[in-house]
Amino acid sequence: MPDDFERMWSDLAPVGRSAASGGYFRQPFATAERELAAWFEEQCRARDLRVERDDFGNVVGWWDLPVVEEVAQQPSRNPGPAAVLTGSHLDSVLDGGAYDGPLGVVSALAAVDLMRSRGVTPGRPVGVSVFVEEEGSRFGLACLGSRLATGAVSWETARALRDRDGVALGDVVAGGSSSLLADVGTFVELHVEQGRDLVDRGAAVGVASEIWPHGRYRFDFTGAANHAGTTRMEDRQDPMLTYAMTALAANKQARLAGQRATFGRVAVEPNGTNAVPSRVTAWLDARCSSDDALATLVEAITQQASDRAGRDGTALAVTAESVSSSVVFSPDLAAAVAADHEGGDWPIIPTQAGHDAGILSAAGIPTAMLFVRNPTGVSHSPEEHASIADCLVGVSALADTLERLTR
Question: Which residues make up the binding site for Zn(2+) 2 (predicted)?
């Protein structure tokens, strides 16, 4: 028998968890994430879902329509109406929370179980998906698996991406092509909310209206290495000072504009306590309410950084490593998913976080998202949380949604 939601959640809880912080380290194609991938395929087989993989590491477990004799010999993977796909990802940020990604996968499997217990016979194939490297925590490009599956990023480009140890993506996965989405007509992703909107509304479940545009930008500050003791302050070309001012400028500009800007990763060379650094590389994560606002914010931060570099005698180069435009989910689909539930319609809310759903939507696949309330409002942290009661409401909401979409 397949495991129920609570048993599945309990099985995942120790995998990749740090004893020191309680956070999770489930980086793509590393031990913990591969253990979860194997677990997912076992759960699919326990439900008689047909497992299909692509060349990039993405996986779908298909609940196929019964094959009738007339079409049994036709060379089609999913004969009949366009499929409805759900699911999420199993990788995490460094020292991340338990719910971001895995909640959508476990809930999808549990929703299939609930639909079957209700006696539902879907009129469309249903798939439960796991996309790889959603967080970009290893190879630096968020939603990498779904970008490759949709063709938003080519394998020729992606294969050269390297992790912090210099290992290329092409060295850990074969690469090639993907046909996983060829028959997909609709995608629904369930995710823990990464904020407090549902908490403030007193709602266990919400529906996404849009994803804010966002990007990752590498700032390379270069100067001159020198002795920390013998070099006079006025004689230094210290890129750390330029970076420090830039981080403060990003904070100020984002606050003034009501947007988001974060320097969360920094690398220093030569990284010695008694040496003025020669290089500081820092990564800016910027998120805004519109594409124009994003461009304006990044331009303002870059201009202040350049001005400071001129005063410090340092140099600056800015590289946009990834930029995702605004995604507006289908209002009609969101309204249909949110409407007519016990207790009233579910709220429709925006999100500032990126998701595989945004990539599939941008590729032209009608897409919806469900959020489950996070009482802490904290995400990408061990403090991320959702109650079992709310998670089960989410499972029911996802099953209701899939049932509607597969009629």
Answer: 100, 135, 380
Per-domain boundaries in the chain: 5-212+326-405, 214-324
Q: What is the CATH number of domain 214-324?
A: 3.30.70.360
Contact 289, 259 (CB under 8 A): yes
Q: Decide the pairing of beta strands 59-63 and 327-328.
A: unpaired
Residues 323 and 216: their CA atoms lie apart, in Å, by 6
Residue set of the binding site = 89, 100, 135, 191, 216, 274, 287, 380
CB-side neighbour CA atoms (13 Å) of 295: 5
Q: Binding site for Zn(2+), residues?
A: 89, 100, 135, 191, 380
DSSP β-ladder status, 126-131 and 83-89 = parallel
| Residues 6 or more apart whose Cβ sits within 8 Å of residue 252 | none
- Asked whether 29 and 172 are in contact (CB, 8 A), the reply is yes
Whole-number Å distance between alpha carbons of 86 and 401: 10
Residues of the chain with pLDDT under 70: 1-2, 68-80, 343
Annotated binding-site residues for allantoate read 216, 274, 287
Torsion of CA 186, 190, 196, 202, to 10 degrees: 90
Asked whether 355 and 131 are in contact (CB, 8 A), the reply is no
pLDDT value, residue 79: 46
Same fold, 5-212+326-405 and 214-324: no
pLDDT tens per residue across span 44-56: 999 999 999 999 9
Per DSSP, 383 falls in state T
